Amino acid sequence: MKYRKNKFYKGKIILIVLVIVAMIFSGYFGYNLFREHQYIATVVIDPGHGGYDVGSIGYDGSYEKDLTLSIALRTGRKLKELNPDINVVYTRSNDTVDWADNEEDDLIGRVIFANEQNADYFLSIHLNASENTAAYGYNAFIRSNDPASETIANSIDNNLTEENWLYNRGLEYTNSYPLYVVDNLDIPSMLFEVGFITNPQECADLQKTSNQELIAECIANAYNDYIVSTIKG
């Protein structure tokens, strides 16, 4: 009787071990149980303004901070859908900001956040404004010594042009238009103005979900294409 019990327990242990091994090889536990996912790049997406800072006010009374948040979140989702191996982090994912309610600390906070995340790329989404309500179009602001962001900005333009989203107001360098966050990061960094919130037609167009999705997809494709190309060498 004792022999049978020992034989039973040994058999049970062997069975358990075999089940565990099978589960591991079948992917039940998953690779990430034993090793943290290795991303090929981290992109920090920064919805401009937020919280106390509404940004520019649209022709219809809408706030820049709300539109930048919506477009930024859509861009991040599109990028993650395109490439799960790209880590997407937002400086804010709602109308709350984690830094003090003054402009200087606000800008410093975004730089600190990007550095803490070990970001490889930084993208800040904004909307433009002008006393001239006829002004419209998109443009990017980068450092003059940032060829990666220049390539990505040109790719965004090509993607938008193909989708008939016009027009490109040109690439601007921070030498002539200083931007604290872009200038104080050592990684490829861009501030992208998606359009003029003070233009009646463009303001209305930018609030349409379909147009926000289009812009987000064009931006996400540009970043994904560049990042993948650098990995392939």
- In angstroms, what is the radius of gyration? 24 Å
Task: Supply the number of structural domains.
Answer: 2
Helical proportion, percent range: 40-55%
Mean pLDDT: 89
CATH topology of the largest domain: Aminopeptidase
Pfam families: Amidase_3 (PF01520)
GO molecular function: N-acetylmuramoyl-L-alanine amidase activity
Transmembrane segments: 12-31
Domain MurNAc-LAA: 111-224
Describe the structure.
This is MurNAc-LAA domain-containing protein. The chain crosses the membrane at residues 12-31. Pfam families: Amidase_3. Keywords: Hydrolase, Membrane, Transmembrane, Transmembrane helix. InterPro entries: MurNAc-LAA_cat, N-acetylmuramoyl_amidase_3. This protein has two domains: 1-36; 40-232, Zn-dependent exopeptidases (Aminopeptidase). Helices cover 46% and strands 17% of the residues. Strands 2-1-3-6-4-5 form a six-stranded mixed sheet. The chain starts with a helix and ends with a helix. The chain is built from seven helices and six strands. The longest helix is centred in the N-terminal third of the chain and has 24 residues, at 2-25. Helix 4 crosses helix 7. With 233 residues, it is of the alpha/beta class. It has helices at residues 2-25, 64-82, 103-116, 147-162, 180-183, 200-206, 209-232; strands at residues 41-47, 86-90, 121-128, 138-142, 168-173, 189-196.
Keywords:
7 helices; globular; Aminopeptidase; 233 residues; alpha/beta; 2 domains
How is this structure best summarized?
This protein is of the alpha/beta class and 233 residues long. The chain has helices at 2-25, 64-82, 103-116, 147-162, 180-183, 200-206, 209-232; strands at 41-47, 86-90, 121-128, 138-142, 168-173, 189-196. The radius of gyration is 24 Å and the shape is globular.
